[in-house]
Every structure is written in C-alpha cells, then in structure tokens.
Amino acid sequence: MDALLLHHQLIITGQSSERMATTSSLQQYGRVPASINLHRKQQHSLSNCSSRVSVMAGNRNVMLLQGFIKSNKVSKRRSTAGLVVKCGGMGLGDFIGGDLVKFDIGQWLSDVEEHKALAIYPPHEGGYEGRYLNRLIRQGYYFLDLSARGLGDPETTLTKVHPVCPAHLGKQPIARWYFPPEVDFRLEHLPPDAKGLVVWIIEAKVLSKAELQFLALLPTLRPNVRVVAECGNWRKLVWKPLKEIAGLTAEGGA
Predict the structure, then answer these.
(1) CA proximity to 122, closest of 112, 133, 136, 113
(2) For the whole model, what pTM was predicted?
(3) Residue 119 in contact with residue 241, Cβ under 8 Å?
(4) How far apart are CA 122 and CA 234, in angstroms?
(5) Beta strand 225-230 with 238-241: parallel, antiparallel or unpaired?
(6) CA 238, 244, 247, 250 torsion: positive or negative?
(7) Tag placement on the chain: N or C end, fewer CB within 10 Å?
C-alpha cells in the first residue's frame, strides 16, 4: 500500500513539474489555457485523496491492533474467570516456621520406635528434617549418615567386611582396602548409655526395591538399629513405614 502511494505521488510530481514549465512559458505570452487550471484541481484532489487513504490505512492498522489487544484481554479474562486455587488440608501447623518444632513430633518418636525403619519425604529446600533428627539425638540415639549414591551393596557395606578401591588417577597401581562393617563397627563403640544407632540415608530414591527391603529388615537383624531413608520429597515432611514402601506388606505390595 505504501509503495503504491509513493509511486503515484512520484508520477503526480513529474507531471506537475512539466505543467509548471509549460504554464510559465505561456504566462510570458499573456494567456493560460483552461486545461491547466483543470489539471491543478485534479492534482489537488488526488493529493488530498492519497493523504486521506494513507491516514485511513494508518487508522485501520491502529484499530486492528486495538481490537487484537482487547480480544486477547477478553480471552484471558474468560479463561481465568472460573479458576479458583485452593490449598486443601491446611491447618495451624502449616503457618509455623520450618525451624520450629511441629505438632507431630510425638507421632514421629512413636513411629520410630514402632516401625523401626521409616521412609521420609522432606521438602525440596531441605532443613525441615533437622528438628526431627535433633529430637532423636535428645532421646539418646547416635547417627550414621550415609548417601545412597556410591553406597554399593547395602548388606555388604553395613554388615560385612567390604573392599574399597581408592582412586588411582591412572598413574598408580589399583589398590584394594578392606573396611569393617559400618553398622557393626559403630555398635561396638557406642557409649553404655546410648539408646541405639540411627542409620540416616539421604537420596534413597536411587536404591532398588531389593536394597530398600534389606534396609527395612536391618532393625530385625540388628535390634539396636533404626533406619531413616529419604525416599523422595513433598511440600511438608511426611513419613511412612519403610516396609510399606519396599513392598513387604500387603499395602505396599498392592
């Protein structure tokens, strides 16, 4: 549209320059034809028409843009008009800071003594499980903190003499060192007034079902051992019996 208007204006400008030259030569002789005046009127009307067309085109673009914005706003309002966000299950405990003791701390202690192996799901940002850990320390438990990544076979690492190969960096001979069982070694060195040993395993979500089943049965093999495995994340700290997660019960198998 703009290119067509520009071409039309160039043609009109060229014709007007020729007419002006002819008119000036005729004015020297004292007469001007009527066709010249008629062409001037046509030129004026054409220039006004072209300017009106350009203004109308610009106004049309503006009107289209305004209509597009309004339609988007209306569509957004319609799409979000009937949506309501609700947080179900909220109570007074949800408004207590994560660094404070929750109301379920008593249930936590009783479940540790009853089930002896728990799968916990702390929030992603971490730190909330520290209050529950500290309460177990106050009860007289000692801790063995391990990461599931690089743990190897849990049964061999925790209850048997197991080999460990240090990094040789490609320039040293491959060596193999033997370490005592992690759980048995610490049970032998517990103070007389200790209530027991808690094996706290982080990133337990990478363990297989068979490995989780062994961790769930470890308190049966070692009565003074409690197991806490971080098997995932949730918006608040929750826990379940590890036997249920590992499929050793009817609920877990279903």
Answers:
(1) 133
(2) 0.60
(3) yes
(4) 6
(5) unpaired
(6) negative
(7) C
pLDDT digits (tens, 9 = 90+) for 22-61: 555 444 444 444 444 444 545 555 445 444 434 444 444 4
C-alpha distances (whole Å) from 181 to each of 93, 104, 149, 152 are 41, 34, 18, 13
- Alpha-carbon distance of 254 to 244, in angstroms, equals 10
Strand locations in 47-132 (E): 117-121
Question: Residue 146 and residue 202: Cα distance in Å, rounded?
Answer: 6
Q: CA-CA distance, 140 to 197, in Å (whole number)? A: 9
Distance from C-alpha of 191 to C-alpha of 246, rounded to nearest angstrom: 32
CB 125 within 8 A of CB 181: no
Alpha-carbon gap, residue 46 to 39, rounded angstroms:
10
